[in-house]
Amino acid sequence: MSMSEYSGRRLKSAKVKADQLKATGAKIVATSCHNCVDGLSDCIKHYDVGMEVTQLVNLVANALIIPEKPVIVPVEKEAEKVVAEAAKLAGKRVLIVDDEPDILTFFSTVLEDNGAEILTATDGEEAVQIAIKEHIDLVTLDINMPGKDGGWVFEKLRTTKETQTIPICIISGKPELRRLIYERSVPAPDGYLDKPVDEDMLLRNVRKIIELAERGELASISTS
């Protein structure tokens, strides 16, 4: 499923992002992801935020133009941190598996606005097929779904050759269903979050899991 299917819901869920942008008082918002420019522009226009959207690469390119009298502009540490955090998800492909359209929209918006490429699935069999066919850097997986539930998907991904090294973060609103995951004779998930999940929590955990995976430090994909 593409994000275009959720354009209406996406603008609605982007109210949080619009409020955050307004609160900064800034006139320009820069993103490292070219795919995010249109989404941010729609959000800013829809909620009348009054900001200009540009790609980070354009800002950097403009900064390289040297005036007759060079001016040294100090780079704020906080700005450096924001750019570094955004870069962690740039180009990463995340498969979001959930049967609730609002959750799909919210997770997709947050991660896509931070540079990730998003794929979505609303049922277990579709999720497994996408994971097998596509190069996926991380799967976020709901447990309670119609048909093949998250427990089935989790074990299938862990035991299928093409998908067994993909990091998996369980995100569920049913804590009592944890046993469907942890009682299986396969490596435990790389993350587990209880719904509701806010933007900061989602980003922090997704970034951390991907960072550990890149360093080969996830227990689930250890080759030792």
Description:
The protein is an alpha/beta fold and 224 residues long. The protein has ten helices and seven strands. A five-stranded parallel β-sheet has the order 4-3-5-6-7, with helices on both faces. A two-stranded parallel ribbon has the order 1-2. Strand 6, helix 9 and strand 7 (191-194) form a beta-alpha-beta unit.
Please report the number of helical segments: 10
What do we call the CATH homologous superfamily of the largest domain? Response regulator
Largest sheet: 5 strands, parallel
Q: Domains counted in the coordinates: how many?
A: 2
List keywords for this structure.
224 residues; alpha/beta; Rossmann fold; 2 domains; five-stranded parallel sheet; two-stranded parallel ribbon; 10 helices; 44% helix; 14% strand
Give a quick rundown of the structure.
With 224 residues, this protein is of the alpha/beta class. It has 10 helices and 7 strands. It folds into 2 domains: 85 residues, no CATH class; 126 residues, 3-Layer(aba) Sandwich (Rossmann fold).
What is the fold's blueprint, element by element?
Blueprint: H1 7-13, H2 15-24, E1 28-31, H3 36-46, E2 52-55, H4 56-63, H5 77-87, E3 93-97, H6 101-112, E4 117-121, H7 124-133, E5 138-141, H8 150-159, E6 168-172, H9 179-182, E7 191-194, H10 199-214
Parallel strand pairs: 1-2, 3-4, 3-5, 5-6, 6-7
Helix pairs in contact: 7-8
